[in-house]
Structure formats: structure tokens, C-alpha cells
Amino acid sequence: MELIPEWAPNIHPILVHFPIAIILLAVLMDLLNFFLPDNWWDDLKSTILYGIGAVSAIAAYYTGTWAADSVFLPSGAQSVLNEHADWALWTVWFFGIYALLRILLHWYQKMDQQTIRIGLFVLALPGVFFLYETGDHGAEMVFGYGAGTGQLVEQQSTASVSTDSLQQANTTFRVSDNGNWSWKIGPNGVSTLLSRFRWLEGSASQLQPTIVNSGNNYLLKISADSTTNFFVGKESFQNVQVDYYLDLSDFNGEISLVNHMQDAQNYDFVMLSSDGTVSQGRVSGGNRQVFAEESYSASGMLFIRTVGNGTHFRGYINKEMVVHGHGDAPEAGSVGLKLNGTGTILIDRMTLTQLN
């Protein structure tokens, strides 16, 4: 018998019910204890429940962080995931400290004082609110955005991204009313590159941009010659998700997918190296800080997603999260690409979505 059923994406949805049930039961019994005789229920039993609830909350929190790294989320769920994780962390800290406080009061034999008992019960109520917010955001991800659902169906699908699935009839750079944009490469892709982006290092001419055909699909081909080339869009965004469809098969070096660019010395990045390393971090004052680094193995046309939302930063390759870092919330900035290496890169599409 397997610990995780085939239908479950991970163990988190199985464990998450325990802290909710145990902590709420502890609070309820803590209240009823004011009216029940001591030979039926007492404060020690409530403290044991709070302790078990705190331990189960820790288990649910850490399995939740692992679950977030294994489930591909739609753009609307990214902010909900951040809120869910933040409220969960507050819940863990609250009930961990609260359970420890009750244990210490038992140790020093203070629990027989009615004032302390009432104060402890009142003190537990904010934790119930934290627990509610955690569960509410978790339920929103599952029932609102379908996070982790349809696992059996997903197991039958391929994780690779085919160029054919990205085809559109016409070249477009479409900007929605809220500022989100989508760029599908077409016959006029070079002129779109020149009009929509600006260069911080290098120049467009150094990239020798050309349009190539791949079946019925148009791709933008850019060439790197070992000099740094850094170009970004002209608008600034705060919380943002950017999707790229790139083929790096003939590129040797490092490509940084840049968010929150203030200038050439200050920006956030997800960087892919031809040696199979992907890292996520921040350049501040020209100094690079890596928040997370992993290895990856993928080739051909890649779907790459970068997410910068508050203090959470994520990178996905072919719908699998490969890096998840944390840092201070950045200021609004531009998005773009920075190349350090030699060879050619094929671009099929870029899409930017602002997050709440």
C-alpha cells in the first residue's frame, strides 16, 4: 500500500485536515472546559490537543512548501499561493509558541488560576483566525483554480512543449486594457523587437535578429557573439508573471530572464546556463545574490515561466517548478532578457501577466 494514493499530487492534501480539526477541537474543548467537571475534561487534555495540533501544523506547512514546488499553477493562483503560504507560516508560529506557553504554565503549576485560563482561551482566538485564512486561501487554490486536481489526467499527458501547440496565424503584440501583453512572433517580429524593447547593454544589430520558419510557425532568431546583450520592455510592472517559449539548443552560455529591472545594475532574474544549472536571485548594485539554484534537464522548445510576486520568486520549466526563492519585495521594473554567451536562440512567444 502506497503512502500517497495515485490520485493525489502529494501528501499535503491528506495531512492538511489534521491541524484544522485538532486545533479547532482544542479550542472548543478549551471553552467547554469552563463548564465541564474536572473528572471529565481538564486543561492538560486541552494542552495536549494544542501540542498535537501545532506539530501537525508544522507537518502540513512543510509538505505544503514541497507541494507548491510540484504543482503548476495558473497566473491567478500565484498571489493566492503566496497568501496561503504566509498565513500558514503565521499559524505555525502562533500555535507553536502558544502550545509551548501552555506547557510552561503547566510546568510552573499556574493553570489552576481562573484569570490565566480565561486569558489563554482569549489568546487562542487570533490563531483561529490565522487558521481560517490559511484554509480559505488553500481552498481557493483547489476549488477556484484547480490546483493539484485532475492528477490522473495529467499523468497521461506529456510534460514537453511542442512548437505546433504554439502556432497562431498572425504576428501580434497585443496589449490588454490592464497592461498585460502577449507577443507571438510573426513575419514582422524584428520590427516589433526594435519598437517594443530598449537596450541597456549591447545593441539590436549585434543580435542579428531574423525571422525563420518552422513549419507554419514563425520564430525570432537572435545570435550572441560572446558580448553581453541586455534588452527590456519599456513599461514597469510590480507583481508579474512572464511566460517564455525559447529554444536554447544552439546557445552556449547564460541567459537571464529579467524582472523588476531598475537599471543594468539592479534587477531580479531567473538564469539558465548551458551546463544545466538554473538559478534565481537578484542583482543589486552590480552584486549578484542567488536565492535558489537547481539543476535541470530539458531541450528543444522550452516553456519557461518566471514569477515575481511580493517576497516570493519562482521559476518553472515545462510546467515544473525548478527554483523557488525568497527576498525583499522589489520595486516595479521592466522585464526582458540578458545574454552572456555564444550561439543562437529561437523565440516563439512571450506573455506578461500582472498579478494581484
Automatic annotation (TrEMBL):
<keyword id="KW-1133">Transmembrane helix</keyword>
<feature type="domain" description="DUF2231">
    <location>
        <begin position="10"/>
        <end position="149"/>
    </location>
</feature>
<feature type="transmembrane region" description="Helical">
    <location>
        <begin position="48"/>
        <end position="67"/>
    </location>
</feature>
<feature type="transmembrane region" description="Helical">
    <location>
        <begin position="14"/>
        <end position="36"/>
    </location>
</feature>
<dbReference type="Pfam" id="PF09990">
    <property type="entry name" value="DUF2231"/>
</dbReference>
<keyword id="KW-0472">Membrane</keyword>
<dbReference type="InterPro" id="IPR019251">
    <property type="entry name" value="DUF2231_TM"/>
</dbReference>
<feature type="transmembrane region" description="Helical">
    <location>
        <begin position="115"/>
        <end position="132"/>
    </location>
</feature>
<keyword id="KW-0812">Transmembrane</keyword>
<protein>
    <submittedName>
        <fullName>Uncharacterized membrane protein</fullName>
    </submittedName>
</protein>
<feature type="transmembrane region" description="Helical">
    <location>
        <begin position="87"/>
        <end position="108"/>
    </location>
</feature>
